[in-house]
Amino acid sequence: NAGVTQTPKFQVLKTGQSMTLQCAQDMNHEYMSWYRQDPGMGLRLIHYSVGAGITDQGEVPNGYNVSRSTTEDFPLRLLSAAPSQTSVYFCASSYATSGGANEQFFGPGTRLTVL
Amino acid sequence: SQQGEEDPQALSIQEGENATMNCSYKTSINNLQWYRQNSGRGLVHLILIRSNEREKHSGRLRVTLDTSKKSSSLLITASRAADTASYFCATGSGGSNYKLTFGKGTLLTVNP
């Protein structure tokens, strides 16, 4: 298993440009999430999905869109990049069981700089 | 908003010593998880403790949970240089098994 993969690893954008961060998992996990990590801030949830066709907002959703057309893929779209979106972005997935909470598996991250 | 807050923010110890990190949170939780992040890498899950559990062990890791004090601690025994990393606590609450709220982390440095 490749686990959770993210592309690209690094990206530089100019203010106003749009782009899509890709995330894929091959573990057949129902749950997928996007986080951003800023220095001294820990991880903050942007959007999440509990299955194909179902998405919802997290703590900091403004400026980002997501869709979940398949179980495997969960792309994050920046509609009009702003310097405040300079951050490291992590995708994560987890499985569902009747026992409750489970560990999340993280991708390696995408380091985004907006000039 | 941050749910968990780790303490201390940074910890430096010698190889072989024990490292203790604490996490405090504000609201009722279903579970609390600890993750490790090596510099420039993704997070790796270490251990999960549910709200009805008080202590769990995994190898050199020991986690305690005190729901009355809304706090948890992570103990790493006999630390190694390879344990150098940032450690985060994350809490899940309500009906969400997948929505985690992370703290800001403790940076642990283990000197050889």
What does this structure look like?
The complex is a heterodimer of chains A (115) and B (112). Chain A is built from no helices and eleven strands. In chain A, 0% of the residues lie in helices and 50% in strands. Chain A is an all-beta fold and 115 residues long. The model of chain A has no long low-confidence stretch (mean pLDDT 93). In chain B, the strands form two sheets. In chain B, strands 2, 4, 5, 9, 10 and 11 form a six-stranded mixed beta sheet that branches. In chain B, strands 1-3-8-7-6 form a five-stranded antiparallel beta sheet, with no helix packed on it. In chain B, a hairpin with a 2-residue loop joins strand 6 and strand 7. With 112 residues, chain B is mainly β. Classes of the chains: A mainly beta (115), B mainly beta (112). The interface between A and B is medium-sized, with 28 and 26 residues.
Oligomer: heterodimer
**Averaged pLDDT of chain B:** 91
Q: Give Rg of chain A in angstroms.
A: 14 Å
Helix content of chain B: under 10%
Largest sheet of chain A: 7 strands, mixed
From the spread of the alpha carbons, the general shape of chain A counts as globular
Order of helices and strands of chain B: EEEEEEEEEEE
Distance between the termini of chain A: 36 Å
**Percent range for β-strand residues of chain B:** over 45%
